[in-house]
Amino acid sequence: MLKELGESGYEPNAITYTTVMKCCFKFKQYDEGLEIMSEMKSKGSAFDSFACGTDVAALVKTGRIEEANACMEQTTRNGVGTRFIVL
Description:
Helix content is about 65%, strand content about 0%. The protein has helices spanning about 1-5, 15-25, 30-40, 50-60, 65-75. InterPro entries: PPR_P_subfamily, PPR_rpt, TPR-like_helical_dom_sf.
């Protein structure tokens, strides 16, 4: 879906990425969702508390607690509050 958006000239934003990640995680496609999260970060899209919460929830559900903690710490260092993250 994101590839098709890019081909049509639309550049995904944080909301688009987060929505697609949530869909992946809902259908237990955790690796695909986490790849989207990596793409989002690499393209410099804003990684807000909603994106972080989505990412952290998937990491926790897959037992990747250290990665979840690292994500929260990095997000906090980048000046994004994580107090509103709901797991």
